[in-house]
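We treat protein structure as text, and this decision shapes the records that our systems exchange. Such a record has a labelled line for the sequence and another for the backbone structure tokens. The record that follows is passed on verbatim for readers who wish to inspect the format:
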Amino acid sequence: MFEQILIAHRGEIGLRVLRACQELGIQTVAIYSKADAQSMHVRLADEAMCIGPAPSSKSYLDMRAIMTVAHLADVDAVHPGIGFLSENAAFAESVERSSMAFIGPTPEHIRLMGDKVAAKDAAIKVGLPVVPGSDGELTSLDDARKTAERIGYPVLIKAAAGGGGRGMKVAEDASQIDDAYNLARSEAKSAFGNDAVYMEKYLADPRHIEIQIIADEHGNVVHLGERDCSVQRRHQKLIEEAPSPALQDAQRKQLGLHTAASIAKLGYRGVGTVEYLYENGEFYFIEMNTRLQVEHPVTEMITGIDLVQEQIRVAAGLPLAFTQEDVTFSGHAIECRINAEDPDTFVPSPGKIAELHAPGGMGVRFDSHAYAGYAIPPYYDSLIGKLIVHAPSREEAIIRMKRALREAAFGGVKTVIPLHERMLDAEEFRDGSYTIKWLERWMDER
């Protein structure tokens, strides 16, 4: 097992990784920008080093600065957290060249799944169902026109190196294909430095279902069930739950086992999330995230498995501590992302938290780096915490979440808590019929 780990992240996830390390008896080294000097994981780490000014390009995305700290601290491994460099193959290679362990997949798998075209090709080869679309990258506008005619409108043009909804354009019919193709390429170039795009059949109103897997380097791959992440605004998730209210037990079992068996063919190592769109009883692979997910706590709550600790053990070369037969699923879990944003306009609300009361009680978990007196910096994403509840049934979990949201208090800043309270009362959420387009429709109708 490792003796010392560098946590190459900030905020809530930095604290989450630190806690896992402490429970494993591993020393921690935190990095921070000047804006995060008072962050909780910096306070609690065994050692902390500033790596630059507030902008992430000069701190959390500065590979040279991070590796300098890793060498100075003489760490055994680097945990990249979520976002920033967590899916950067060059960073993983740099860590491994320095005889340190990268707590994540191999650089080859990060690179493979980071290219959406290559990932789709790989999914087809290992037997995962995919959305009908182009045979790889679109080579020209004429290729886009012909492909759209072949698979049928509406179509979605997506950045090959994309994510988070950027570089994605819909063409409802032939009159829109030229603009969709050109705009998608332009956005992809601007956002990712790569204008490669591909095309998929546009599904009218699907759900977003993802399977959590974990694999060791000894060939063992286990799935930990599915999560439903369909409550989204502009492709950004707000509520996640497990298990999905849309699936039957036979469906979820088949999907989980098939996904794990398919990923095993890749020789994958580490945690990963295989994401699907689900419509009319069919699943379609869309991408694989080669890192820990923001919503991983809902999986932990229904399985009792600490994903971060297992992630660390696997990176240390240890076999999984459990088999598929050992995994049991209990009850229902829901996560609400608490962002420092106006609940109606979604305008960020940075500033000092004058007072904070964290909800608690039976089956309630609050993952946050925030505290009374903490100043939320304006330079990063607005997530200040994740509220997760667990209960024997979905109905009881909704009731528990409503109670926990009422308890939460963040004085001095706006949060999306009022929006969560309204969403939990919405008919489509309560009956589980929501889709990825539901939230924006519901908000427009209010």
